[in-house]
Amino acid sequence: MTRIWSEPFEAEQWNRFELRIEGPQDGNPYKEVVLSAEFQFGHRIIKVDGFYDGEGQYVIRFMPDYIGSWSFITSSSTAQLDGLQGTLICTAPTSADNHGPVKVDQIYHFSYADGTPFYPVGTTAYAWNHQGEKLEQQTLRSLSKAPFNKIRMCVFPKHYDYNAAEPEQFAFAGSLQQGFNWEAFNPDFWRRLETQLDQLQLLGIEADLILFHPYDRWGFSRMAAESDDYYLRYALARLASFRNIWWSLANEYDLLFEKKMTDWDRFFRIIQEHDPYQHLRSIHNWHNPEIHYRSNLHWYDHGKPWVTHASIQHADLNFVTEWRELYRKPIVIDECRYEGNLNHGWGNLTAERMAQCFWEGMAQGGYVTHGETYLHPEGIIWWSHGGELHGSSAEPIAFLRSIMEQGPRLDTSRINFKWDASAGGVEGEYYLIYFGASRPAFRDLTLPEGAKFRIDLIDTWAMSISPLDGEFAGACKVPLPGIPYQALRISKI
Amino acid sequence: MTRIWSEPFEAEQWNRFELRIEGPQDGNPYKEVVLSAEFQFGHRIIKVDGFYDGEGQYVIRFMPDYIGSWSFITSSSTAQLDGLQGTLICTAPTSADNHGPVKVDQIYHFSYADGTPFYPVGTTAYAWNHQGEKLEQQTLRSLSKAPFNKIRMCVFPKHYDYNAAEPEQFAFAGSLQQGFNWEAFNPDFWRRLETQLDQLQLLGIEADLILFHPYDRWGFSRMAAESDDYYLRYALARLASFRNIWWSLANEYDLLFEKKMTDWDRFFRIIQEHDPYQHLRSIHNWHNPEIHYRSNLHWYDHGKPWVTHASIQHADLNFVTEWRELYRKPIVIDECRYEGNLNHGWGNLTAERMAQCFWEGMAQGGYVTHGETYLHPEGIIWWSHGGELHGSSAEPIAFLRSIMEQGPRLDTSRINFKWDASAGGVEGEYYLIYFGASRPAFRDLTLPEGAKFRIDLIDTWAMSISPLDGEFAGACKVPLPGIPYQALRISKI
User: Fold this and answer.
1) Which of B384, B406, B428 is the last residue of a domain?
2) Nearest to A267 by CA among A252, A287, A285, A248
3) Could you tell me if A248 and A389 lie in one domain?
4) Is residue B330 domain-shared with residue B445, that is, in the same domain?
5) Which domain holds residue A237?
6) pLDDT reported for residue A289
7) N or C: which end of chain A has fewer CB within 10 A?
């Protein structure tokens, strides 16, 4: 017997369509009931996994990517859930903010699905979503005023210095005291996470969701392989339909000492096979300070085909060009130390240096992620808890973001001078040259022949843009103020 | 027939003894007359080469290293100069400033021959000795007030931006207009250079004398191999007896494109064979900004046995520890960019950064060299011409020198935190931890068990030393002011 919903459903393109069906509650439905659906548009079929949401509720979610009429049919090991058919009318986005999910574009860059360029300007608040309602709301208010359009955050809670509080809920059923049931999830936790993801989406923020990390007192970092995979499949079924999700396999994967490289390969393949939308996938390394200044020893190979972009922890942004050439993928420096005054060495950059990291990375055609680690009387530190931003780099980062969004995608440029400048551009058209803490009094440039250029002097710290007098062509001498944190923006007239 | 000086000569230990003899002027005495002498002390014989000083004057120089009575006898292809015998009484130094030449000591460090530690605090004025009397005197006055005890300087003049003036004299006979005689020298030039070396010695400054370099319009960088060797032998015969000389085979050897690695090997061996005193020998690389952030690609192998210490150009002092472990020799960063505001990328560091380079290198048990490149209305720039110092790093460098001279020789220490600190010390006894531009609000230290320590907080930029209250032992929390450029000096009580 085939059950058919007579009325078609509706969903906007790239929004989440959710089908909620009653089903059996006996046994362990998470494990025992297999559910999926096929959504068909013309000859194109997308298979999505369903999941059990507790209390006899089974859910199928789908993010339609084409406008028009889709048909669907469920499959299940349980007759009650099997063979259910319906129609989904996918309509055009009604919100100007709905550009679809972010994809790799032009090899080294990102765009939304509708073609709008996306310049990731990330921040880091690993466990903001485990802090309880009050602090979480404060974090969202802070994010609404900040320039960040990507946030790194963890499914599992964080155990570390300044992170001793016990969260209320966990991805798995159970607690630290009572133990966890590695075969059952806690739907309340997941629904709360989903609300948080939607709140981020309303703010235009991509969730760089970290699936595993080593800072753990609960056992989530050392589950058996079948639990890892079981968890991944559940997360994929619940979350893949969120258009603002990116899969970050790990924060500091190489500190998860019980996992092998083949485990990470398997996780990537599971995600690749079960995410119908092929959201961005990456993995983030630890940064061993003993080998701090070499470029990429001991990393997961970002060249593997299932890695969509390199998510790198490294304190030296000068490697961005090398990594671009090595991986030929977008380079996102997801950790380059944080602005703050923390006792830990990775957490006491000046604001000037944090902003400098952004400029150095981005002028080379890479992307950089912010974090903040100021000591706080109640131990609420943005890097992990969210809360309020206390630093001074967010404003110059916002200024940089506006400059990036005004210009073209940057490639590393040979026009300039790695001695004291990070430079990128579009050959013959546009150059951005950033001098960092160096402070030349002038610079001799050799601009491409046959064109005239105008040049803006940008004080990246004072956040001012001053057009230089005249037009520039060929070999020319460009005056500079001889103070740190200056940049030149050179545009073909 | 043997001629004997009946009266013994006298010279202080490590001073220069000079024997001046009349001889033939016909032909090309530089080339045609071979002259040497053997100085004997007990069973020990030191052979030194003589040289022709023009106008029929032949000279033998010797730096005695043992107190007592030395005999000597000359050998020559010319009968007139052959078999001359005499006695040299070597007396104890009368000047407290005469500690002898500098040697490698304790693998990674330097001492004078009398055992006094020498901590190189170098500066760079490549062509100060080619600028004419007035500017040269100004340079010497500047040096007399500066903290530097080593200077990098070239035998050959410099052709480069800001270096267009024609010198008065050259090592070889001739001029740019008339051409050079590659078989004859200009003794006036050499005597002037020797006066300069003696003036430096009076100021307690070691002359890191650069024998070849690429910045050339005269042809000195592309002489035939026999001219290279001929010049080296002449320089060795004249200058080896100067106790403050170090042989730097090149500034940026790898920009001398016509020379091969085997040429540099040969030069090292010539110096090794013909310098009776085995002064320090090194070779200095260019720093290709394209491969800027890798550690030592394309370098001359400082591990070769004739290299006494590594003379490195590199902008990243964090490699010092790696180079120490690689070469097991003293590491001298003889160029890490210069304080100034020059258009060139290697010449526009802030003074803070120049001082930071010194601290980063020295806290790891390496040594660092200063340079200064401020634009100047008459184009007189310390880095090349000498003159006056206009920067602000010399004073904090002097402060660092005093701290180094108060403490023991440093080895890279594992006590700390490459993330944000360069740290060195003597295990269990003494530690110097430098935080650079990072600014932790406190630091947890684990000091060795069984001992108590006192800790000084050093503001390396404000040049203040503040003892912290109390004694420290074992695991302890050390308060810090949360501002850049702080260091801790930890001394066993």
Assistant:
1) B406
2) A248
3) yes
4) no
5) 102-406
6) 58
7) N
pLDDT digits (tens, 9 = 90+) for B331-346: 999 999 999 999 999 9
Task: Measure A417 CA to nearest chain B CA, in Å.
Answer: 7
What confidence category does residue B297 fall into, taking pLDDT thresholds of 50, 70 and 90? low
Q: Is residue B483 part of a domain?
A: yes
CATH of the domain at A449: 2.60.40.3950
Answer yes or no: do B60 and B110 share one domain.
no
B353 vs A contacts (CB less than 8 Å): 437
Instruction: Specify burial of residue A260 (Cβ count, 10 A radius: 0-12, 13-18, 19+).
Output: exposed
Per-residue pLDDT for A82 more than 60? yes
**Among residues of chain A, what percentage have pLDDT more than 90?**
92
Q: Distance (Å, rounded) from C-alpha A184 to C-alpha A167?
A: 18
pLDDT in tens, B65-121: 999 999 999 999 999 999 999 999 999 999 999 999 999 999 999 999 999 999 999
Domain boundary pick from B348, B382, B406? B406
Residues 6+ apart with CB under 8 A from B145: none
Do the chains contact at A419 and B350, CB–CB below 8 Å? no
One domain, residues A37 and A114 = no
> Distance from A487 to chain B by nearest Cα, in Å?
14
* Parallel, antiparallel or unpaired: strands A464-467 and A68-76: unpaired
* Contact between B418 and A295 using a beta-carbon 8 Å cutoff: no
pLDDT confidence band for B443 (50 / 70 / 90): very high
What's the confidence (pLDDT) of residue B163?
A: 96
Residues B366 and B305 in one domain: yes
Contact A363, A369 (CB under 8 A): no
**How far away is chain A from the Cα of B305, in angstroms, using its nearest Cα?**
27
Q: Are residues B146 and B255 in the same domain?
A: yes
CATH of the domain at B49: 2.60.40.10
A288 pLDDT band, cuts 50/70/90, is low
Give the nearest partner residue to A442 out of B294, B343, B353, using CB atoms: B343
A25 contacts chain B (CB < 8 A): no
The answer to whether residue A431 sits within a structural domain is yes
**Domain count across chain B:** 3
Query: Are residues B307 and B272 located together in one domain of the fold?
Result: yes
CA distance linking residue B69 with residue B183, whole number of Å = 37
Q: Tell me, what's the ipTM?
A: 0.91
Quote the CA–CA distance of B363 and B320 in Å, as a whole number: 10
Q: Look at A439 and B318 and tell me if their CB atoms are within 8 Å.
A: no
* A484 to chain B: closest CA residue: B350
Section B149-170 average pLDDT: 97
The closest alpha carbon to A357, from B393, B437, B484, B339, belongs to B437
pLDDT at A322: 87
Residue A11: Cβ within 10 Å count: 18
What's the pLDDT band for B318 if we cut at 50, 70, 90? confident
Q: pLDDT at position B417, please?
A: 62
Contacts of B345 in chain A (CB under 8 A): 417-421, 438, 440
Same domain, A454 and A482: yes
Q: What is d(CA A360, CA A490) in angstroms, rounded to the nearest whole number?
A: 17
Instruction: Examine residue A4 and state whether it is found in any structural domain, yes or no.
Output: no
Q: What is the CATH number of the domain that holds B192?
A: 3.20.20.80
A343 to chain B, any CB pair closer than 8 A? The answer is: yes
Q: How far apart are CA A76 and CA A35, in angstroms?
A: 4
